[in-house]
Every structure is written in structure tokens, then in C-alpha cells.
Amino acid sequence: MRIKRRWAVLSAVAVAGAGVSASAVLATPQAGLTTSTVAEAPFAPVRVSGSYRPDPQTRPPSFWAAELRTFGVSDVYVVDNVLAPGGTTGWHTHPGPSLIIVKAGTVTNYRAWGGHCAAYNYPAGTGFIDAGGNDIHMLRNNGTVPAETVAVQLIPHGQPRKIDEPQPSDCPS
């Protein structure tokens, strides 16, 4: 009987603690954002490397290389995001990296790191990388026309594609 009561008390404390921590984390909501998943598929572990050396006679030689390595199954997404003027993704992160291409308008990528907040503008025809993990950020359309991005995301299998985060104290909402 004593063991059952101990388990009941521990369970009640765990539930109460979960309620407190859940209420303390206030995610920032997205607004004016339309997201469409264009395609998604699971990929077995990948180890790919490639290089391109168009003219080994040049000094220094022209050279380009890329490497992609994953452990375990990954979910790959192609996502189309349209941000209305003033629209925002809300503060969030992803468990894996994203390659983002800006198709229309201009997006501002606000990044929170090391107690600082930085803003980077990306107009149509440019791209940037979101490293994922602890890269807490928010995209906003500060312009007067809709902005559109397409992202290719590599996410550990079964994990959420986007994780909402509270607004960092040094950054805009």
C-alpha cells in the first residue's frame, strides 16, 4: 500500500510539474503565413560527397565540393511558405537543417543567439541556410507585397518539422 501511495504522489507531482513548465513556455504565434508541403519522403541513411574541378590547370585550381551525411532515417520536406505583408512565422526552430530560397518579395530572418538578436534581409532570388538544432529564428515580411520562400528540410525521422519557441527577450515579436 505504501508503494502505491508513493507512486500516486510522484505521479501527481510529475503532472503538476508538467503543467507548470507547459504554461511557462509561451510560443509566439505565426500570423499571415500560409504553408504548403509540396513533397515529403523518408530517406535511408545518406553518405554522399561530390566535387567538381572544371579546370585543374588554373592557379589556384577551380574547385567545388559538398558532403552530406546522416545517421538513421531522415524525413525530407519541400515546403512553400507565403508571408502576407506584416506576416511572421513566429519564433521557432527545426531539429534539422533547411535550405531556403526566396521566390518573391523580401523576408527578414531574425536570429537569436548568444543574447543577441540579428536581422538579415533576403530579397527574391537569394537563399540562406537554417542550421536547425538550437538556431532560434523568425521570418517576417516587412514589405508591402507578399513574400514567398521554398525550403528543403532534412529532419530526423518522426520528429516535428517546426518547433515553436518563446520570444527571446532581446528580439522583436
Descriptive report:
The structure is a single chain. The protein is globular. It is mainly β and 173 residues long. The model is unreliable at 3-24 (pLDDT under 50). It has one helix at residues 2-24, and strands at residues 31-43, 47-52, 64-69, 74-88, 92-93, 98-104, 106-113, 116-123, 127-130, 136-140, 147-156, 163-164. It is built from one helix and twelve strands; from the N terminus they run αββββββββββββ.
Name the descriptors.
single chain, 173 residues, mainly beta, Jelly Rolls, 5-stranded antiparallel β-sheet, 50% strand, globular, disordered N terminus
Concise summary:
The chain has 173 residues and is mainly beta. It contains one helix and twelve strands, in the order H-E-E-E-E-E-E-E-E-E-E-E-E.
Question: In terms of topology, how is this protein built?
Answer:
Blueprint: H1 2-24, E1 31-43, E2 47-52, E3 64-69, E4 74-88, E5 92-93, E6 98-104, E7 106-113, E8 116-123, E9 127-130, E10 136-140, E11 147-156, E12 163-164
Antiparallel strand pairs: 1-4, 2-3, 4-11, 5-12, 6-9, 6-11, 7-8, 7-10
